[in-house]
Design goal:
mainly beta; 17-stranded parallel β-sheet; globular
Length: 367
Amino acid sequence: MGWFALLGLVFAASGGLTTAAARPQIDGAASASAPAVRLTPDPTTGRPGRDDAPPPPSTTRPVDTSRPDIVIGSGSPAGCTSAAVVDAVERGGVITFDCGPEPVTIAMTATAKVVNTSQVVVIDGGGLVTLDGLGQRRILYMNTCDRAQVWTTPTCQNQDHPRLTIQGLTFTRGDATGETTEGGGGGAVFVRGGRVQVVDSTFHANRCDATGPDVGGAALRVLSQFDGLPVVVARSWFTDNQCSNGGATSSIGVSWQIYNSTFVDNRAIGNGANPQRAGTPGGGNGGAIYLDGNEMTLELVGSVVRDNVANEGGGAVFFVSNNRTGRTFIRFSDLIGNPSRGFETRGFPGIFHLGSGPPAVTDSVLR
């Protein structure tokens, strides 16, 4: 679809588009009477999300890892190595760490890859473990359609396993720049197929390609989840991640449920949007969160999305449902100071939205 045709659809389907210069400063559906909230932008000083938000569903509780299949380390940092992480993830099962009582950073000299034959992979850092991609590589990769692996079902893009849970981990300096498999992206974590859930984790200073109309997700890129079930993110931080699109998260044809999480200072740094304008490399959509596809849903609940930037559309959220069946629900959340330097949907600061009606916003602040 041509760029100007797309803009015409924006006016028809979303009630209009505003440029950065005309961006309204309002409180969205919550209006000026919305309750004052405290922000907790620093993961070292408070929990993520909005302080007055309801608790997330019980399904977002951490997996019980009291009886692990694999323990990385033997009580000190010495045994907590990149090779040990790569080996454990390849073997699968419930994985924990015993690196001593203090926080530890593991320099990842190779990408850890989940194997298709694993039914369940749980990686639990206990809040003490950071995996550092050194600015040189993607940190974690799962792809049920990877031809380098044995396919375990005839429909690789729609199978219920592996079921990957990431909890109590920090990912930093993952970098997927130049990766081309499945369109690239996923500086820290790339997932296609199976299921993925992220709880109580932090993604900081991850990167992927700086330009391109579709590539995205410096922290987390997800494709083709089983039976269209959503990615679940709970009580997690996304800070200072950058990519062409989806500074923090990016997906195509995937739904998301994001609970009690915080997105701060993430950036979509491409330019030219999608489809890209003539003479540009494309990109720049979704400073924090990017969804593209057909029938999909974004639920953003109890979360803070603040000071993210998109060079083009959707400083906070970019959501395009090509067949206009997709829905967005924003509840008990604050989207504050997320400039869209090119365009956004009128009346919804920081959001570019094409779907089945406008975003449904309740008990939230948009400005």
